[in-house]
User: Fold this.
Amino acid sequence: MTLDTNIQFLSGVGPRRAALFLKESGISTIGDLLSYYPYRYIDRSRFYAIRETHPDLGFVQLRGRFTGMSLQGEARKKRLTLVFTDGKDNMEVVFFQGIKWIQDRIKLQTEYVLFGKVSVFNQTINMVHPEVEPPFADPIKGVASMQALYSSTEALRNNGISQKLLSRLQADAILQVEGGFCETLPDSLLTRLKLMSKIAALKNIHFPQNSQMLLEAQRRLKFEELFYIQLGLLKQKSLRLSSTEGQRLTRIGEHFNHCYHQLPFQLTNAQKRVLKEIRHDVGNGKQMNRLLQGDVGSGKTLVALLGALIAIDNGFQACMMAPTEILAQQHFASISKLTAGSPTSVGILTGSTKRSDRKKLFQSLSDGSLHLLIGTHALIEEGVQFRNLGFVVIDEQHRFGVDQRARLWSKNQTPPHILVMTATPIPRTLAMTLYGDLDVSVIDELPPGRQAIKSLHFNDSQRLRVFGFMNEQIKKGRQVYVVYPLIKESEKMDYKNLEDGYLSITRAFPSPEFFTSVVHGQQKSENKAFDMKLFIDGKTHIMVATSVIEVGVDVPNASVMVIESAERFGLSQLHQLRGRVGRGAAQSYCIFMTGHKMTKEARQRIELLCSSNDGFEIAEADLRLRGPGDLEGTQQSGLAFDLKIANLAQDGQLLELARKEVVSILDRDPLLQNNQHSLLKHRLQQLQKDAVDYSRIS
Ligand code: ADP
Ligand code: MG
Assistant:
């Protein structure tokens, strides 16, 4: 057998269980099985006393005897209760299933080892459905004292695929492939970085000899995982740099100068630095692929505009794509202002652009008289033909699918330079993995004169005070957002909350003194746009909205954000929402409303937000608290994100190391053409066989 052999050929599996494995856990080959790593280990050399145990311990092991057995209940509701003693204390052990089997096999007053989780029932400790084994009978693990635990599913368990069987299959799989096993990292790397061999790592990850060996096995496997991800990404980048030429944009001319010298303020140092980075990228004959990160309001759009103007000065056209119509409109309005009186012609194309306007627009695009086109997804439609597209800006990129970006890329024969902007700061480790083949710029400085947003936490019983505060602010001429969570699973309930909230707000803030807009995803888009516009134009005082409220919407006069059920949002999302205020000169406030009872994690999140306004600090904390899979922006990113063993929140150093090694290899051999690197090349191909082809993507 080899790593590619189907697991049905392992003894104890067969076609039916193999199908189940595939469906439940995506395991089809022996190789898949071996990389189905345990999620934790338990120390089987340790026995707990009953009085030491509590539910938080998770799995524990106890040694003792059963002293009594009784059967309760009728038919399907039967329950077998045993009394277990460790010599000092007693505990109930309960079975609801497999009762007959237990009754037939368990002998009273004989020593057993129990393995399971304790729970508390009627204020006493008990154990439901533990594994019961005679002491010392441990045919699989031999002397190993650490037992691996694998994540499992109900369907697997119901089909007899127990932890025990999983362990046995792993042992069998190792035995089967050990002889012909091929190493997956070059020896030189293993020696230099003191990494254990792959086969030794697999043995120790499933059957650790001791905790030191387990750590080494984890280090080796994590390194390998991160290494090949980086190798894939960075090789892609070398390929792009070596095979595609970029337009060389070196001229600075009237388009840039006109806008730049008309700005009513100085660029911040961070903006200047990023502009320099962009100028370098577009001037060196290579195609730019850059990610620009920065908190909301840090002035990304302006930098992007200046980049686009450089392209225009060099005879090219540019476009800027926003995720929603409203955002596109806002960009169009602010950019029209910034380029007023200059020779730059700016157009807008969205889904609602009229046919006749569209025709004119297309004409001016293809004859080159339109310099900069701002728009929504409509920009990537077939009919949109540029004369000579040289610079593409994508705003709030995580809302766009990867394939959509790829289509923009292909709008020109020579690919345009691409600048992707996001206001969701991404921790460095994540950026290196998600956007590993992009260069990353960061604007980490807000324009001067911005007042930090004051963040406060109130609970539901203090609502009247919050209403009082809103009233005060509205009297001062300010506007207020009230945001309700919208979470997929409970959409109906959430809309009900929103409606109730809207009612209570209109009661507390009645017309004609006050006017309230309401915006949510279930509205017709005309109604949504109408209410939105009322608020933007200052005709309504309060905007009640779901969290779908447009990212990036800019209403400088709105200075209060009230977030309802804040405990239900993630850190980054709360920070994003908060960024809707603090855009004008007035002191802004963000009020987090929560219930009285909160989980510890929710409390931590709110506390952190009340004490920090720094998007990067918050993103790092979010990564630590939730793990990368849940971070905003990663799910829709299009990159497969199921790391099997590495953890981006914890393995930053290992990731840096892997990346450094990859860079040094590719510096010498950008496309892995040397014989010396054939192992790497081959392995990478193998890993990418099933993966989507990202090669044409920004
Ligand atoms: P972002 O796209 O990062 O959210 P914007 O580019 O929309 O930020 O800028 C937010 C606001 O700040 C805009 O009104 C913009 O004109 C203004 N702005 C940008 N750069 C500066 C600066 N250096 N000094 C003062 N105001 C600035
Ligand atoms: Mg913006």
